[in-house]
Design brief:
2 domains; alpha/beta; rod-shaped; 285 residues; five-stranded mixed β-sheet
Protein backbone atom coordinates (compact mmCIF):
# COMPACT_ATOMS: atom_id res chain seq x y z
CA UNK A 1 0.00 0.00 0.00
CA UNK A 2 1.33 3.40 -0.96
CA UNK A 3 1.85 5.97 1.82
CA UNK A 4 -1.02 8.42 2.19
CA UNK A 5 -0.47 11.93 0.81
CA UNK A 6 -1.44 14.11 3.77
CA UNK A 7 -1.82 17.15 1.49
CA UNK A 8 -4.88 15.55 -0.13
CA UNK A 9 -6.62 14.71 3.15
CA UNK A 10 -9.08 17.03 4.88
CA UNK A 11 -7.92 18.63 8.17
CA UNK A 12 -10.50 16.61 10.17
CA UNK A 13 -9.38 13.29 8.71
CA UNK A 14 -5.75 14.21 9.23
CA UNK A 15 -6.40 15.06 12.88
CA UNK A 16 -8.10 11.69 13.41
CA UNK A 17 -5.11 9.93 11.84
CA UNK A 18 -2.68 11.82 14.07
CA UNK A 19 -4.65 10.91 17.18
CA UNK A 20 -4.80 7.22 16.23
CA UNK A 21 -1.09 7.19 15.43
CA UNK A 22 -0.06 8.86 18.70
CA UNK A 23 -2.34 6.63 20.76
CA UNK A 24 -0.81 3.54 19.16
CA UNK A 25 2.81 4.71 19.57
CA UNK A 26 2.19 5.74 23.19
CA UNK A 27 0.73 2.30 23.91
CA UNK A 28 3.93 0.63 22.74
CA UNK A 29 3.29 -0.18 19.07
CA UNK A 30 6.35 0.46 16.91
CA UNK A 31 6.32 3.40 14.53
CA UNK A 32 6.86 1.09 11.58
CA UNK A 33 3.78 -0.94 12.51
CA UNK A 34 1.66 2.18 12.98
CA UNK A 35 2.82 3.50 9.61
CA UNK A 36 1.77 0.28 7.87
CA UNK A 37 -1.54 0.19 9.71
CA UNK A 38 -2.52 3.78 8.79
CA UNK A 39 -0.95 3.89 5.36
CA UNK A 40 1.42 6.76 6.05
CA UNK A 41 5.19 6.88 6.01
CA UNK A 42 7.27 5.99 9.07
CA UNK A 43 8.90 9.43 8.83
CA UNK A 44 5.48 11.09 9.14
CA UNK A 45 4.70 9.06 12.25
CA UNK A 46 8.03 10.14 13.75
CA UNK A 47 7.29 13.80 13.02
CA UNK A 48 3.80 13.58 14.55
CA UNK A 49 5.15 11.89 17.66
CA UNK A 50 8.01 14.36 18.09
CA UNK A 51 5.60 17.32 17.75
CA UNK A 52 3.24 15.69 20.25
CA UNK A 53 6.03 15.27 22.81
CA UNK A 54 7.06 18.90 22.25
CA UNK A 55 3.71 20.69 21.99
CA UNK A 56 1.26 18.25 23.53
CA UNK A 57 -2.42 18.23 22.57
CA UNK A 58 -2.01 21.32 20.37
CA UNK A 59 0.08 19.28 17.91
CA UNK A 60 -2.84 16.93 17.23
CA UNK A 61 -5.45 19.53 16.30
CA UNK A 62 -6.30 20.29 12.69
CA UNK A 63 -5.15 23.63 11.33
CA UNK A 64 -6.27 25.91 8.53
CA UNK A 65 -4.62 25.20 5.18
CA UNK A 66 -2.15 27.66 3.73
CA UNK A 67 0.75 29.63 5.10
CA UNK A 68 0.24 31.09 8.54
CA UNK A 69 1.64 34.52 9.49
CA UNK A 70 5.36 34.14 10.01
CA UNK A 71 5.56 30.56 8.73
CA UNK A 72 8.49 29.53 6.47
CA UNK A 73 10.54 32.37 7.91
CA UNK A 74 13.63 31.95 10.06
CA UNK A 75 12.13 34.14 12.78
CA UNK A 76 8.66 33.83 14.26
CA UNK A 77 6.33 36.82 14.38
CA UNK A 78 7.19 37.47 18.03
CA UNK A 79 10.94 37.17 17.35
CA UNK A 80 10.68 39.62 14.46
CA UNK A 81 8.75 42.05 16.63
CA UNK A 82 11.38 41.98 19.39
CA UNK A 83 14.18 42.45 16.85
CA UNK A 84 12.47 45.38 15.15
CA UNK A 85 11.90 47.16 18.44
CA UNK A 86 15.50 46.68 19.51
CA UNK A 87 16.97 47.90 16.22
CA UNK A 88 14.70 50.94 16.04
CA UNK A 89 14.92 52.07 19.67
CA UNK A 90 18.59 51.77 20.60
CA UNK A 91 22.12 51.22 19.42
CA UNK A 92 23.79 47.80 19.35
CA UNK A 93 26.00 48.75 22.31
CA UNK A 94 22.86 49.27 24.42
CA UNK A 95 21.70 45.81 23.35
CA UNK A 96 24.89 44.23 24.74
CA UNK A 97 26.85 43.95 21.47
CA UNK A 98 30.37 45.11 20.71
CA UNK A 99 29.22 47.48 17.93
CA UNK A 100 28.36 51.16 17.90
CA UNK A 101 26.19 51.14 14.78
CA UNK A 102 23.91 48.52 13.28
CA UNK A 103 25.13 46.44 10.35
CA UNK A 104 23.95 43.16 8.87
CA UNK A 105 26.55 41.38 10.99
CA UNK A 106 25.51 43.17 14.19
CA UNK A 107 21.87 42.33 13.58
CA UNK A 108 22.74 38.67 12.90
CA UNK A 109 24.64 38.53 16.21
CA UNK A 110 21.71 40.14 18.05
CA UNK A 111 19.35 37.43 16.78
CA UNK A 112 21.80 34.61 17.46
CA UNK A 113 22.48 35.81 21.00
CA UNK A 114 18.79 36.16 21.80
CA UNK A 115 17.20 33.24 19.93
CA UNK A 116 20.14 30.97 18.97
CA UNK A 117 19.18 31.33 15.31
CA UNK A 118 21.94 31.88 12.74
CA UNK A 119 21.01 34.26 9.93
CA UNK A 120 23.03 34.88 6.76
CA UNK A 121 23.82 38.40 5.56
CA UNK A 122 21.31 37.96 2.74
CA UNK A 123 18.57 36.91 5.17
CA UNK A 124 19.25 39.92 7.40
CA UNK A 125 19.09 42.23 4.39
CA UNK A 126 15.77 40.72 3.30
CA UNK A 127 14.34 41.17 6.79
CA UNK A 128 15.37 44.84 6.91
CA UNK A 129 13.59 45.41 3.59
CA UNK A 130 10.57 43.33 4.65
CA UNK A 131 10.23 45.34 7.87
CA UNK A 132 10.59 48.68 6.12
CA UNK A 133 13.63 49.59 8.24
CA UNK A 134 15.76 50.38 5.17
CA UNK A 135 14.87 50.22 1.49
CA UNK A 136 16.29 47.84 -1.08
CA UNK A 137 17.95 50.74 -2.91
CA UNK A 138 19.78 51.83 0.26
CA UNK A 139 21.02 48.32 1.04
CA UNK A 140 22.01 47.67 -2.59
CA UNK A 141 23.79 50.99 -3.15
CA UNK A 142 27.56 50.93 -3.55
CA UNK A 143 28.75 54.51 -4.16
CA UNK A 144 32.38 53.49 -4.45
CA UNK A 145 31.48 51.51 -7.56
CA UNK A 146 30.02 54.56 -9.35
CA UNK A 147 33.04 55.19 -11.51
CA UNK A 148 31.60 58.23 -13.36
CA UNK A 149 29.88 60.05 -10.49
CA UNK A 150 31.56 63.46 -9.98
CA UNK A 151 31.33 63.29 -6.18
CA UNK A 152 32.93 59.84 -6.14
CA UNK A 153 35.71 60.92 -8.49
CA UNK A 154 36.38 64.16 -6.56
CA UNK A 155 36.33 62.34 -3.24
CA UNK A 156 38.90 59.84 -4.44
CA UNK A 157 41.21 62.64 -5.53
CA UNK A 158 40.94 64.67 -2.33
CA UNK A 159 40.60 61.92 0.30
CA UNK A 160 43.45 61.80 2.85
CA UNK A 161 45.93 59.01 2.25
CA UNK A 162 44.89 55.84 4.07
CA UNK A 163 41.43 57.15 4.97
CA UNK A 164 38.28 55.12 4.39
CA UNK A 165 35.56 57.03 2.55
CA UNK A 166 31.97 56.70 3.71
CA UNK A 167 28.95 58.41 2.18
CA UNK A 168 26.44 59.52 4.80
CA UNK A 169 22.76 60.17 4.31
CA UNK A 170 19.42 60.04 6.11
CA UNK A 171 16.33 58.04 5.23
CA UNK A 172 12.81 58.99 6.34
CA UNK A 173 11.19 56.49 8.65
CA UNK A 174 7.45 56.76 7.86
CA UNK A 175 6.51 53.47 9.49
CA UNK A 176 7.15 49.75 9.44
CA UNK A 177 5.73 47.37 6.85
CA UNK A 178 6.52 44.29 8.94
CA UNK A 179 5.23 43.37 12.43
CA UNK A 180 3.97 46.48 14.15
CA UNK A 181 5.29 47.87 17.40
CA UNK A 182 3.08 47.32 20.42
CA UNK A 183 3.41 46.53 24.11
CA UNK A 184 3.57 42.77 23.57
CA UNK A 185 6.94 43.08 21.87
CA UNK A 186 8.99 44.78 24.56
CA UNK A 187 12.62 45.10 23.56
CA UNK A 188 15.81 45.33 25.54
CA UNK A 189 15.76 49.11 25.30
CA UNK A 190 13.37 51.96 25.91
CA UNK A 191 11.04 53.18 23.20
CA UNK A 192 11.36 56.51 21.41
CA UNK A 193 7.93 58.15 21.57
CA UNK A 194 6.36 61.22 20.08
CA UNK A 195 9.31 62.36 17.98
CA UNK A 196 10.05 62.25 14.29
CA UNK A 197 12.35 59.33 13.55
CA UNK A 198 14.74 58.60 10.71
CA UNK A 199 17.60 56.32 9.86
CA UNK A 200 21.00 57.96 9.72
CA UNK A 201 23.27 55.72 7.70
CA UNK A 202 26.71 55.61 6.14
CA UNK A 203 27.69 53.49 3.14
CA UNK A 204 31.24 52.30 2.51
CA UNK A 205 32.81 51.88 -0.92
CA UNK A 206 32.17 48.14 -0.62
CA UNK A 207 28.49 48.64 0.12
CA UNK A 208 28.52 48.08 3.88
CA UNK A 209 25.63 50.00 5.45
CA UNK A 210 26.05 51.26 9.03
CA UNK A 211 22.86 52.73 10.45
CA UNK A 212 21.12 54.00 13.56
CA UNK A 213 17.52 55.03 14.15
CA UNK A 214 17.35 58.45 15.76
CA UNK A 215 14.89 61.28 16.19
CA UNK A 216 14.85 64.87 15.06
CA UNK A 217 15.99 67.50 14.93
CA UNK A 218 18.76 66.20 12.68
CA UNK A 219 21.17 68.93 13.66
CA UNK A 220 24.89 69.20 14.37
CA UNK A 221 24.55 67.47 17.73
CA UNK A 222 22.83 64.42 16.21
CA UNK A 223 25.49 64.22 13.50
CA UNK A 224 28.27 64.53 16.06
CA UNK A 225 26.83 61.60 18.01
CA UNK A 226 26.59 59.50 14.85
CA UNK A 227 30.10 60.46 13.69
CA UNK A 228 31.51 59.49 17.10
CA UNK A 229 29.95 56.05 16.82
CA UNK A 230 31.19 55.72 13.25
CA UNK A 231 34.78 56.50 14.25
CA UNK A 232 34.70 54.01 17.14
CA UNK A 233 33.23 51.27 14.96
CA UNK A 234 35.58 51.61 11.99
CA UNK A 235 38.71 52.17 14.09
CA UNK A 236 40.61 54.02 11.38
CA UNK A 237 40.89 57.44 9.73
CA UNK A 238 37.68 58.37 7.93
CA UNK A 239 36.76 60.62 5.04
CA UNK A 240 33.01 61.31 5.39
CA UNK A 241 30.94 62.74 2.55
CA UNK A 242 27.74 64.22 3.97
CA UNK A 243 24.69 64.80 1.75
CA UNK A 244 23.37 67.80 3.68
CA UNK A 245 24.70 70.62 5.83
CA UNK A 246 22.99 71.03 9.22
CA UNK A 247 21.50 74.48 9.77
CA UNK A 248 20.89 74.09 13.50
CA UNK A 249 23.62 73.73 16.11
CA UNK A 250 26.18 73.35 13.33
CA UNK A 251 28.81 74.77 15.67
CA UNK A 252 28.78 71.50 17.64
CA UNK A 253 29.72 69.55 14.52
CA UNK A 254 32.32 72.11 13.46
CA UNK A 255 33.99 71.97 16.88
CA UNK A 256 33.97 68.18 16.91
CA UNK A 257 35.60 68.00 13.45
CA UNK A 258 38.25 70.55 14.47
CA UNK A 259 39.19 68.45 17.49
CA UNK A 260 39.69 65.35 15.32
CA UNK A 261 41.57 66.66 12.31
CA UNK A 262 43.85 63.64 12.38
CA UNK A 263 40.99 61.16 12.58
CA UNK A 264 38.20 62.55 10.43
CA UNK A 265 37.75 64.76 7.40
CA UNK A 266 34.26 65.81 6.33
CA UNK A 267 32.99 67.05 2.96
CA UNK A 268 29.55 68.42 2.29
CA UNK A 269 28.37 67.19 -1.11
CA UNK A 270 25.73 69.93 -1.21
CA UNK A 271 28.54 72.49 -1.53
CA UNK A 272 29.82 70.86 -4.71
CA UNK A 273 26.62 71.43 -6.74
CA UNK A 274 26.66 67.82 -7.94
CA UNK A 275 24.45 64.86 -7.20
CA UNK A 276 25.08 62.78 -4.14
CA UNK A 277 25.54 59.04 -4.90
CA UNK A 278 22.68 57.78 -2.75
CA UNK A 279 19.25 56.61 -4.05
CA UNK A 280 16.53 59.26 -4.30
CA UNK A 281 14.17 57.35 -2.08
CA UNK A 282 16.76 57.64 0.68
CA UNK A 283 14.98 60.92 1.31
CA UNK A 284 16.14 64.29 2.40
CA UNK A 285 14.87 63.85 5.94
Amino acid sequence: MYPLDARKVSPDVLEALRRRAIAAVESGVSRAQVARMLGVSRQTISVWHREYRTRGEEALRSRRRGRQRGEQLALSYAQQLWTIRTVTTCGPDEAGLSYWLWTNQALAELVNNRFRIALSATTVRNYLIRWGVLSDSVLSNRPGGLQTDPVVMATRRTAPVGAETLWMHRAPFPGLTGPQLHSDGASACSEIDGQRNAMLYAVSARGTVLFLCTHGPFDGVRLTEFFGRLVRQRGRRLNIVLSWRPTRRADALTAWIAQRTGEVSVRFAVDEDVSFPVPRDGGSG
